[in-house]
Amino acid sequence: MSVDKTTVAKIARLARLNVPEDRLEPVANELNGILDWIAELNEVPTDNVEPLASVTGHALPMRDDVVTDGDCVDRVLANAPEGASGFFVVPKVVE
Amino acid sequence: MSQLVTGRTGDWEVVIGLEVHAQVSSQAKLFSGASASFGAAPNENVSLVDAAMPGMLPVINRECVYQAIRTGLGLKAQINLTSVFDRKNYFYADLPQGYQISQFKHSIVGAGVLRIVLADGSTRDIGIERLHLEQDAGKSMHDQHPSKSYIDLNRTGVALMEIVSRPDMRSAAEAAAFVRKLRSILRYLGTCDGNMEEGSLRADVNVSVRRTGAEFGTRTETKNLNSLRFIQQAIDYEVARQIELIEDGGTVDQETRLFDTNTGTTRTMRSKEDAHDYRYFPDPDLLPLVVTQKEVDDLAAALPELPDDIRDRLINDYGLSPYDASVITEERDTAEFYEAASAGQDRKLVANWMTVELFGALNKSGQSLSDCKISPAMLGGLVSLISDGTISGRIAKDVFADMFETGKDAASIVDEKGLKQVSDSGAIEALIDAVIAANMDKVEEYRGGKDKLFGFFVGQVMKQSGGQANPGMVNQILKSKLDS
User: Fold this and answer.
1) Could you give the ipTM of this predicted complex?
2) In whole angstroms, what is the distance from residue B22 CA to residue B185 CA?
3) pLDDT tens digit string along A52-66?
4) How buried is residue B293: exposed, middle or buried, by Cβ count under 10 Å (0-12/13-18/19+)?
5) Is A52 on the interface with B (CB under 8 A)?
6) pTM of the complete model
7) Does A61 lie at the interface with B, CB-CB under 8 angstroms?
8) 3-class SS at B103?
9) How far is B286 from chain A (nearest CA, A)?
């Protein structure tokens, strides 16, 4: 598996990362290095092995259906660049 | 019944699939302890998890999982004991995480089936492809400020069930019937309140057209329709648009469209081509969701009787018409009212009084069944007075109106107003003799062959009795007297 410049540019755009044109080729090379290294795992025979989701052996912990949180508008908005009447205020985004 | 749509160049078959988003009824959100209730002040029902503050971790709400399983059981669907949460990545101002936690490859509920009831009372099975759990997003308001949007995250993280149908529907009416039936089942189960105005239930419709028997055409998806009327309008518009486009030599683009509720039309969403590149991957914050078969069995054992089963029972055991049975079972409280009112009574007669008189009066007064003054026992009492001949069906209508108004039971109204039907043959004979004596000319005409006058005599006798004479006995005695 390998990625090219175009793929890197597309992934960067989707992730809102600014990768300048002259960095696309080097980033593609770095990513391919990582992908090749991980691809070595394909050599391990896994035909009769169950997929492993976690090495801890724990099940997904669950919570009771009780309201225990919220009602903290000040904390939620504390880092917002702008707020008004309890709302976040952002540059207009409209379809 | 042909459902084809005729275009300029021939007939077209419409193919519809639905994705319905149903808000799970729960106290708290899917992955946080904030309240899931509707109508709080802006950002009041938001925890730091919902706001996606760094380091916050999701912990799943067991009840939301159970609600999804109950719904799956109600759809006679396969329950997957292991399912996986994935991240669906996209950027929008009301999605602070930058991704929605959803289920992509391994959903909690697999294939099932939903039986819809059509206008003529016939039924059709629509396939369910899957049901998965996911987070709702927040709400953006664009009309508060000329250059800013206001964001409220109260809905962010509330649990949704996305229910995906097979492309089995062939008309807008079938799509509406699907949503109506799904809503009914959700409300019976108590897993979603089904409130479409508040957005608890909304649908995305996938529509394509094809020549009969041909491959599926290219479909469009119209998003976020929150009423049965909008669903039908959006489908009708899309069908007409696509047929015209193809007949003019064009092709349908696979795209997402928006519905304009003011004009009843759809338009292309002005999105980048990347909009659907969600780069799903398993959420590393969440282990696979595992439930046991015992948990599923326990939930199944505690399910209420579902509308299809009740409907079958009303048709097979009580002899109701498919139409009455469908109307009565659409809502759980109506079905329960009917069961209580008709116990020990003439089941069909109660169904008739309920669907015609009671529903009519509720419609007219704008009341719901729960706030009206008539209890199941009161309706049963009225019907028993008709069945045992105490009052006629005509008098019963007046008694019903009185009951609806005052909340008194039928027997007291009949007593107070002296409405008891006269079934004493002596009294009826006396009335008939008086009417005959007063109308000897008409009696001659009748005996001369003018049969139609019989109705006149019945009318006169009933009038003299103040409507209380037993109509069957009047007919019988009158006939014997006139014909003698």
Assistant:
1) 0.89
2) 12
3) 777 777 789 999 999
4) exposed
5) no
6) 0.85
7) yes
8) coil
9) 7
